[in-house]
Specification:
Layout lengths: L23 E15 L14 E12 L4 E14 L2 E17 L3 H30 L12 H18 L9
Antiparallel strand pairs: 1-4, 2-3, 3-4
Length: 173
Amino acid sequence: MADEGVLTDLNEGPAANGADTSPVAGIISQYVKDLSVENPNAPDSFQWQDKPQIDLQFNIGATPVNDEIHEIELKINVTAKSEKGNIYLVELAYCGLVGMRNLPDEQMHAFMYAEGPRLLFPFARNVVADATRDAGFQPLMLDPIDFNGLYMQQLQQKAEQEAAAGGPPAGEA
């Protein structure tokens, strides 16, 4: 019964020297970096009866802070228009600091442009809903976005464009 009470042998395995070699990625913090809400035709716009036309635009950016931390920025622009003019405009830059260590470049890229925005979106969606409500209108509840699907679609489009432009051959001749 000499092995009783021993859970693991700390002298074996790839991290025996205490080095942290496990791949890790996660959100460190998140915040509103910039928020603009305009209600340019108030109070007249509260009387308009026609259904607003909503224009939704979003963009994702990533900026390195240091070797292990990146800032992911989810930009959301919403414009509600009617025949009589703009009802409201919301511009939001919602960010998250993401820590990543021991990941291959392609996995880091996928985390920054697909998984990170997927994790940030529900909070940004809430900010947009609160902003439209606070402007005096019904809260705008944005539909969920398939960031992973969009990411894969953009990768495919980029590969097709490179192939059409005579990019590097797929194999050796």
